Amino acid sequence: MAHDKATVRTVLDKARSDGRDALTAPEGKLVCDAYGIAVPEEGVAGSAAAAATLGQAMGFPVVMKIVSPDILHKTEAGGVMVGVKSAAEAEKAYETILANARKYKAAARIDGVQVQQMLQGGQEVIVGAVTDPSFGKLVAFGMGGVLVEVLKDITFRLAPASQEDALSMLDGIKAGDILKGVRGGEPVSREALATLIRNVSELVGDFPEIAELDLNPVFASRNGAIAADVRIVLDWNPPPQRYRPSQQEIVRQMNRIMRPDSVAVIGASAEDGKIGNSVMKNLINGGYAGKIYPIHPKAAEIMGRKAYASVKDVPGDIDVAVFAIPAKFVASALAECGEKKVSGAVLIPSGFAETGNVEGQKEIQEIGRNYGIRLMGPNIYGYYYTPRNLCATFCTPYGYKGHAALSSQSGGIGMAIIGFSRSAKMGVSAIVGLGNKSDLDEDDLLTFFEQDDDTHVIAMHCEDLKDGRSFAEVAQRVSKKKPVIMLKAGRTALGARAASSHTGALAGNDKIYDDVLRQSGVIRAPGLRDMLDYARALQKLPTPKGENVVIITGAGGSGVLLSDACVDNGLSLMRMPPDLDQAFRKFIPPFGAAGNPVDITGGEPPKTYQNTIRLGLEDERIHALILGYWHTIITPPMVFARLVVEVVEEMKAKGIEKPIVASLAGDVEVEAAAEHLYDHGIPAYAYSTEIPVAVLGAKYKWARGAGLVR
Amino acid sequence: MAHDKATVRTVLDKARSDGRDALTAPEGKLVCDAYGIAVPEEGVAGSAAAAATLGQAMGFPVVMKIVSPDILHKTEAGGVMVGVKSAAEAEKAYETILANARKYKAAARIDGVQVQQMLQGGQEVIVGAVTDPSFGKLVAFGMGGVLVEVLKDITFRLAPASQEDALSMLDGIKAGDILKGVRGGEPVSREALATLIRNVSELVGDFPEIAELDLNPVFASRNGAIAADVRIVLDWNPPPQRYRPSQQEIVRQMNRIMRPDSVAVIGASAEDGKIGNSVMKNLINGGYAGKIYPIHPKAAEIMGRKAYASVKDVPGDIDVAVFAIPAKFVASALAECGEKKVSGAVLIPSGFAETGNVEGQKEIQEIGRNYGIRLMGPNIYGYYYTPRNLCATFCTPYGYKGHAALSSQSGGIGMAIIGFSRSAKMGVSAIVGLGNKSDLDEDDLLTFFEQDDDTHVIAMHCEDLKDGRSFAEVAQRVSKKKPVIMLKAGRTALGARAASSHTGALAGNDKIYDDVLRQSGVIRAPGLRDMLDYARALQKLPTPKGENVVIITGAGGSGVLLSDACVDNGLSLMRMPPDLDQAFRKFIPPFGAAGNPVDITGGEPPKTYQNTIRLGLEDERIHALILGYWHTIITPPMVFARLVVEVVEEMKAKGIEKPIVASLAGDVEVEAAAEHLYDHGIPAYAYSTEIPVAVLGAKYKWARGAGLVR
């Protein structure tokens, strides 16, 4: 546990003073020893005879490798011989290796030949570490050989990783079952392997100059995990620390921005079609109750409000300044905001980094830092915060209050969020445009939404995380309290190319995003519509108390598809205990299907739905319900919807709340029924057996990550 | 190519006369030799000395195995020794094997010890064959070792498989790249390996009594593919041939059923709420122009039509009889239909196999066969055929004519089809309920829709294929002409369990379904909504002429998500040639993004969309367009929709037609724009970047399978 940092420091300092960016094998062993990373017995021989002696001492077979600071790719140089079986072979191998090395690079400094115990048996795996521009140090784990190369079967975690993180990596690869022993193989020691992974992660966490580390292969067996080969690459120029205010400071700033008492509109206009006009209209018509100050060089009054030539002329304090002026005027107006001690600048204008004007963006970034103004954007539509009736945007106002906070990096996606929300009557607490993210980004928003009682679920569209490390740290904390959903665009090589031409940002390796988001408890939405559906449903669904899901369906066909969807979304259909099975059977026709799904069959009256749903809610062993409705004359859609709401409210009065979702198969009347159900807390979907299960699955995924289930 | 069937016949006859259900290794070798399946050199030794001599002749090392008709699991019996290196070792091994075998099963007949050339090097793969209850003989291929066991990395094709089918199997597994040579490995001979697979498939195709065959491992190398071990299991009781009328006969029958001149309603009723009343109403109000005969024991007239006590009393011919009577009356009424030479019986009633009444279903099945009446159902909602305004169902009538034919095994899913179609204004040619499929099933429908000019795309919900082999054969033919989409329910173990409790049908192995559907050119829909979206869009999209897809987007953020979706759906974003790039740049602002997506940026007027879309249609190198619209004041949603339609129609007049799909990001007005676009042949979707690309991807998948692209 307590690592020997001093030894590592000495080894690294020596490499640095030599001007090297890699460690030699013996240095690698020293570093591994210092961090409890098991490596084979070994020694360095300066002569053929010494090689033979070393081999005899540790026992043959051995592996012999050239030791030279100038030869990194030892195999390529002919500097490696494996399976050396005797003293005579060791002497011969020594000479061969030296000759090969000289042929490869005549001027190479040669420190000798390493003689190493040859590891055999066990499962070959790979453990490594990399430095990601956004996430920083990451530890990696994968199976050796073709599995990592052909199937890209590798997984990452932020370093340092906990023992639990490390253990999760063993199950995080597709071929993880191999470690449990297949085809007569022995299972490996999971603790030993996880400990090795954790130690590697702590090593790179403690020494930022270790840019890359490779243990390849590591032999994992029942008895332990030993790294057969160590490769450590150094970087003496680590990236500069990013600007990060304290969490407390962020909360203070964000509270002034999201819940302002006063808003100035720089570039306010009375002229229809102007952005400064739309912003004014939205603020006023949206019902914002704070002070609104139009800023305009000449006008005395705009839309009935007294106008000022500069924010500096405004008599009272200003919390937020919304910019609706061309890019070239932003810097000077921003400086004035600084002098006025404005807390947040909402930079709608485009014409910065996204059009190549990187310098212009840097300039405003610096002004913001100097004055302590937080910048939203530039290149955004603005933002909404419904608890304050605040529509600080040029888009149409949005007023349907609720508990989903959404953000988008792109304006187009922001418009899709607004349109979908309005159309699907999604209750929203906030919608925020982040655009070029010159300053405020996802982790600032998370920090605010964490303590915002009006926000119960957070959904973010994002093309890149400028500071993935900070985001992950904040998300890890926030996701324990509220679901955090992310649509990470640029997932694929093609998408990433488009992302990079769009924002000038380097798109990250998607596998890293995937693993780190999971490690941080973030639910990743596969697509735009999924993100929207999750945000809409998750704020309604109560948190499940356990894994037992039961399907109650009037349509057998829906039952099958809902079961398929349960598997797709990682949900467990409860194995029905005999007494519960009997209890359900009491309510359904004799030819209804037993078990789970509970198939009540098609021609049943409302009472059958009612009785079975009530039972599903009352029985404590059941934790969540999926309803499959089939439109019939006997139980029309609205009758079904009302009876479900009735039972749910009856149970709520008794203190029973469980997540319920519904799939409605029927003619167009089911759409109104779905709406009625959603309005009463039951996410329901017409013509789909997948969406209801997907949103329930997302709720479960979150609840598991937050430690609320199991 | 020409196989030696006679030899195989002799070997099998011998096994049969011995009463064995497996072949010995030497028999296996004979069979392999007869079908050009390479196996190692070998011989059977009757003594230790003979084993040594054989080994010397073929060269050591060798593998030695017990030969006994009574020992199937040779390894378990201690009957296998590998790596026998010399004559002395061979003699010793002979004695050991015999001793082990006697210990394992004292009474076992022992024919000797097989001495076999030991194969080394090359890539270990598995080739096999199985018999599926629905699909019959299938050939299987996978990588050896952990890849098949842990990752279930195996793929199937119907046997016999063509060389092309066999080649496709090499790419059909996840780890297929290994065969191309990785980590310095040599690529294997694809032709040799495919030939071996094809030969195996022909062998099991020619000899139905071969129930299972395992070549494990097969060593594939640059020089060929040799099966190191052969295991053949026999089944002397192959399932009986299924009833299969000729394709011509099916077309004749189905034409009378789908385009009837006269329909009888058995159980017609004037009483509201009765199924026989709903059917009458739907026939009449749906506008069916043929003769309608109500059948009722007493009534003289129902809904203004003369009623008859029996179909036999009806003066003219009857093409179709719709049954709206309880299950217990069906058999006798069906027999009367038989006497009347009715072509099709539409059996709405439930109460047959799905409620356990298997005998009742068998009874009506036999009546149908005897009289040559085709049965639809039982346990269905009926069917629609819009070109004849025919709504022979108790559900609500559907009249929006178009070119998608849909079917469902389940009634609930049928209602979802009707509701979705009406809500999304999907043009439909037919909706058919198949229910218990006592007779008519998916391949009968396919055969009809193949030659139905009103049907351009076929979409089927299905829980099991009673005769997967027939379906695959018909689908292979039909899918060359029209897209065939299938939603296969019961994909997962859980879903399959629900399916089997629902219909009493054995759910098939999903991997087999997946592979065979692909082999048959069927597009598999991952979920219900996907099936509906595909059916709705594919009938509108022209067939692409090549793989070059271009995204034109006003929202950079949509561009990234659309690119992601392209990768997810197997679409290739065209690499933009410099001249075309320049041509696009002429129309877009200087900071618009180069390449593909073409990012025209957000604030552009209609002209920019118009110019770029026109260019995308005019340039012959581009084969399909994906549009990303961003709602702005400058180009409002309906303006965008109209301009797209205008350009598309302008190009159509010049003979240019390409598939176009659109993703609309904006406020709720985009929904009307999406509808306008769809009405004019451009599938367009509000708030989604995934669905437009998924439907285009489905069209491509079909076109590739049908050989229309590339």
Put the structure in a nutshell.
Two copies of one chain form a homodimer. Chain A is of the alpha/beta class.
Number of helices of chain A: 23
Beta-strand residue fraction of chain A? 15-25%
Helix content of chain A: 25-40%
Mean pLDDT across every amino acid position of chain A: 93
Q: Using DSSP, what is the number of strands of chain A?
A: 30
Kindly, what is the distance between the CA atoms of the first and last residues of chain A, rounded to a whole number of angstroms?
29 Å
Rg measurement of chain A, Å: 31 Å
CATH class of the largest domain in chain A: Alpha Beta
The CATH homologous superfamily of the largest domain in chain A is termed Succinyl-CoA synthetase domains
Mind describing the biggest β-sheet of chain A?
A: 7 strands, mixed
Strand order in the largest sheet of chain A? 19-18-21-20-22-23-24
Shape descriptor of chain A:
flat
Structural classification of chain A: alpha/beta
CATH architecture of the largest domain in chain A: 3-Layer(aba) Sandwich
Most residues in contact: chain pair:
A-B, 95 and 95 residues
Query: Quaternary arrangement of the chains shown?
Result: homodimer
Query: How many domains is the backbone of chain A divided into?
Result: 5
Fold-level CATH name of the largest domain in chain A: Rossmann fold
Low-confidence stretches of chain A: 500-508
